Amino acid sequence: MPELPEVETIRRSLLPHILNKPISSGKVLYERILQNIAPEDFFQIMVGNRFLQLTRRGKYLLFTLEKDWVLVAHLRMTGRLLYVSKQEIPLGRHTSLYFAFQEGGTLRLEDVRKFATVNLLPQTQLQRIEGLASLGVEPLSEQFSLEVFQKILEGSSAKIKGVLLDQRRLAGLGNIYSDESLFLAGIHPERAANSLNAQEQKRLYAAIILVLEEALFYQGTTLRDYRTGRGGEGSFQNKLQVYGKKGEQCPRCGSDFAFKKVAGRTSHFCPVCQKE
DNA sequence: AAAACCGCCTGTCGGC
DNA sequence: TGCCGACAGGCGGTTT
């Protein structure tokens, strides 16, 4: 499931292929992907237009177009964004939307489970996308200081796992990197966020940054659906310590890993290294 | 006000 | 072998 490192990898891998190329045509095959606009209006704006910039905020990708339009994409669970150089290659079975560039090549959004969303709106209206407007701090930015993180933790008595997943507090963590960060820091997912002592706060802060940076270096985690913008697989799945390790033992202490639903998601942790 | 729960979707897997 | 329920998890909306 694309989290921050995956979405950032997609951004970087699409960037060299899609900028400043006039869009000559396109099609929506799953209409409900368009959140705020009808297909006819959508293509009226898109055809003849060009992507000028591609940026990321949390798990959102923002394609800036001419005339101040912005296409905002969120891949949710199984969405993929792919640049395919040969226009003739048939569309995948789960293609929801594609654009063809005048000079050849297509940009495609594929999504098995159809949760992905696309909005097209003027730059000045971006705040209309509630989830985007309310995003918290970017964990790989300079704004994410230890002090900022401490404020987040101390401001909530909810379970730490739920706080890490709350995009309004911290933008970009999903289930995989939350579990990996908590394991690395040795903190139980059900601890109250405001119960962490200064040392634990610091460990978790460092763990989040380390895990995200390493995952980004390895171009994300491909367990099933995730692909880069060019169709490649990431390799951080080979570096996972705890996520998906059912039936295996903790590399640190040898105990059997534990599993439990916390904040609605399966949490993976070591019951010995991560005491409640 | 915050937290828990549900619906959206389809493919995969384990059990019988 | 084939069927079926459970499960995967991000997020918005609803309920508690």
Task: Give, in spatial order, the strands making up the sheet with the most strands.
Answer: 1-6-7-5
Distance between the termini: 27 Å
Q: In terms of per-residue confidence, which ranges show pLDDT below 50 for 5 or more consecutive residues? A: none
Query: Share of helix among residues?
Result: 25-40%
Quaternary organisation: single chain
What is the strand tally? 10
Q: How many separate helices?
A: 7
Q: Main beta sheet, described?
A: 4 strands, antiparallel
Broad shape: elongated
Order of helices and strands: HEHEEEEEEEHHHHHEE
Task: Give average pLDDT, whole number.
Answer: 93
Task: Give an account of the 3D structure.
- It is a single chain.
- This protein is of the alpha+beta class.
- It is 26% helix and 22% strand.
- The protein is built from 7 helices and 10 strands.
- The strands form 3 sheets. A 4-stranded antiparallel sheet has the order 1-6-7-5, covered by helices on one side. A 4-stranded antiparallel sheet has the order 2-3-4-8, with helices on one face. A two-stranded antiparallel ribbon has the order 9-10.
- α1 runs parallel beside α7.
- It is elongated.
- The two termini are 27 Å apart.
- The structure holds a DNA duplex (16 and 16 nucleotides).
